[in-house]
Amino acid sequence: MKKKSNKLTVGEIAAYSLGSLGREFSNNCINAFFLVYLCIYQGLNPIVLTVAFVLAKLWDAVNDPMLATIVNNTKKSRFGRYRPWILIGAIVNAIVIVAMFSPVSFENITLKYVYYLVAYVLWGMSFTVLDVPFWTMLPTMADSTDERNQASSMAKLIGGFGGFLVGMLGTSFILPMFANQGMMRAYQYLGMATGLVMIVFLLITVLFVREKIDLPHENVGLKYILSTFKENDQLRAYSGSLIFFLIGTTIALSQILYLYTYCYEDGADFLPKAFSYTLFWVIACTGQGIAMIFYSWIVKKLPREKIYGISFLACIVSYVLLFAVFFFLKPGQGDMKIYWLNTVLVALSGAFLMTASGLNQIGSTVMIADIVDYGEWKTGKRGDSVMFSVQTLITKFAGAIAALILGIGIAASGLPTITDVNVKDLETGSYASVQLFTDEDGNYLVKDEKLYENLQAMEEIDSEKLTKVEADEELISSEGLTVLRAFMFLTPIPLTIIGYFIYKKKYWLYGEKYDNIKKEIDERREQEKEKTKA
Fold this sequence. Notes:
By secondary structure, this protein is mainly α. It has helices spanning 10-41, 46-72, 83-100, 109-136, 138-141, 145-178, 183-208, 222-231, 233-262, 273-293, 295-301, 304-328, 336-379, 384-413, 449-457, 478-489, 492-506, 511-533, and strands at 417-424, 431-438, 444-446, 466-468.
């Protein structure tokens, strides 16, 4: 009887990577658009929201390991131990995303806060249900570090492309396409599209990836979860360095959308703002893609631990470049050449950041797989799902802290909210949704003379809430924009430096030390097999 090969195939790597694209659609949609949607279009307070998000992550600190324990203790079926959980989590997560971007009309503002906070918590829990088994499955697909490198690097590459796609899909197509129906309806369509794409691509992983390596498995409980951080010093070092890195990159990349929304010129109507934002991601993600495609080649030239360390230093350089570009950038003011130069400079600076982020993502995924091996070597138990839940928890907690810092920046910069208003055309009698800036008192700020006249003539609009703004008058103060830019690029620098020093001082699980540990683990497994046969 011919024995099945455990070698990782190209088809399995492709199917696994497409699943990563699906999960990143969900993750990046929430990170990029949810706070914008709530603050700008629902008019909710950014400080209240982001504090609530951080509190929600404290709940994640409890429920993520609990959910991971349930996944870890699940009996293996003919479909595997992890794939059924991925499918269940994807379906629930998609439903929750649609609910998160669905407008609600509570008269009591507190109920609106409660609705979106509960939805955010449910999103985090359902994302854990799909994310933890997705990464936990990696050691069951590939037992060697080289194969894990191949699978994780391609998964991160395609996943990063998914992050770019959801940004492009939202800002260049769905939101502009349905803006005439109101931005809240457009965001709801974005949520629907995100959920559908996520389910389709994760279904490919479920159907075409095999859990073919039968690793030692033991049920773990709360006692194991609590002792994991205490006993596994490499897990603590990994967690400390990664969380500071992710907070920094999330702050920078999340605020790009705010800068394009509030303080970027359309450049003589040559390139609309939405497509300029897309161009940023095209160039930025090209840099990330190049880094991920050539990661396997790079790691042959430089030790993996050095590449990981370089990613921290490269991010710091990129923050300085982005700050310099955005802080000293001159508006296009109708000059197409200046506008194109501005756009390309911003995108190239972003590409540098995304390249460094890509190298870090691949390295961190392989590191957590190695840390699982280290945990087995040190304690005798693998607890794969619990270990990988730490990565999910770090990502979500870093996103919440970044959102808190971002919320403080938004509040300090005094950004106006944007409201959907159905405006009647006085000539045709037809209605179209227009997005207007509103001040803190709820007054509409209108620059266009014709639009102002239309609004005054409408019985549905309280004329006392209309404020005519002169064409040369700024809706956002230059001081406010300075605060926004400073929060975006200067705040991440000290955070990244702290993460780098934690990694350099505390993490040592690589090279010959790891090879010796892996060799001893394999010898123990063989001895256990011999005892079982005897």
